[in-house]
Amino acid sequence: MTGMLALFHRNIHLKKNAVIEPLHTYDLPQGSKVSLDEKVQIGTPQKRMKHPLRMIQTEDSEGNMLFLITNRFDLSADEIGEMYRSRWAIETFFKWMKQHIKIKSFYGTSENAVMNQVWIALIAFCLLIMIKQETGVKHKLLQIYRWLKVFLWNTYDVWFAKMNRQPSRTSTGRKKKVIH
User: Fold this and answer.
1) pLDDT (0 to 100) of residue 39
2) CB-side neighbour CA atoms (13 Å) of 24
3) For position 3, what pLDDT does the model report?
4) Of 88, 128, 158, 176, which has the highest C-beta tally within 10 A?
5) What is the Cα–Cα distance from 84 to 71, expressed in whole angstroms?
6) What is the rounded distance in angstroms from the CA atom of residue 117 to the CA atom of residue 80?
7) What pairs with residue 12 in β-bridges?
8) In sequence order, what are the beta bridge partners of 7?
9) Among 96, 100, 140, which residue's Cα sits nearest to residue 148?
10) What gap in Å lies between CA 180 and CA 77, rounded to an integer?
11) What pLDDT does residue 116 have?
């Protein structure tokens, strides 16, 4: 089994040699993205999990087969599969945010505080892209951002001159000495 994931209430990390005993196989609706929906018992008779779990085999958003383990019996298999795919899209978005708009942690814990911080960061990111496009500079967004922080209280002309200034020296890197 590849692509194991525990959903929602408990995290379960299964080893490749985990013993999974099917207890009941559920019927699947026509056209379902789910190829298997079973109630299972995990573990050997000597060392077994206390409660049965649900194992669903489905495809991720890229078409790869994966198994989801959950203790949610109140949802349909398709709902659980969709929740996983949605969750993965959210994880990908937050990874992008960490890399591009530098949100490492949230200052507040309420939904409103988190949303405000995300929106402010997205607006700042879009403004940096607009500055790069409007000025035509070739520097990376991170460099533009750093100069903005340094020259924040200077005039636009000072900042713009710094962005357009050519390097005063060029590096040729380490050169190998040619031995004749």
Assistant:
1) 92
2) 7
3) 39
4) 128
5) 14
6) 29
7) none
8) 70
9) 140
10) 73
11) 92
Q: What are phi and psi of 160, to 5 degrees?
A: -65, -40
pLDDT attached to residue 173: 63
Residue with tokens 């490492």: 104
* Phi and psi torsions of 133, nearest 5°: -70, -45
CA-closest candidate to residue 2, choices 57, 44, 70, 54: 57
- Residue 54 burial (C-beta neighbours within 10 Å; 0-12, 13-18, 19+): buried
The DSSP bridge pattern shows strands 20-25 and 65-70 to be unpaired
Task: Give the model's pLDDT for residue 167.
Answer: 60
Instruction: Calculate the dihedral angle through the C-alpha atoms of 56, 61, 62, 66, rounding to the nearest 10 degrees.
Output: -10
**Are the C-beta atoms of 78 and 84 separated by less than 8 Å?**
no
- Annotate 63-107 with three-state secondary structure: CCEEEEEECCCCCCHHHHHHHHHHHHHHHHHHHHHHHHCCCCCCC
Return the pLDDT at 38: 92
Task: Locate 166 and state its tokens.
Answer: 């050519």
Q: Integer distance in angstroms from the first to the last C-alpha of the chain?
A: 60
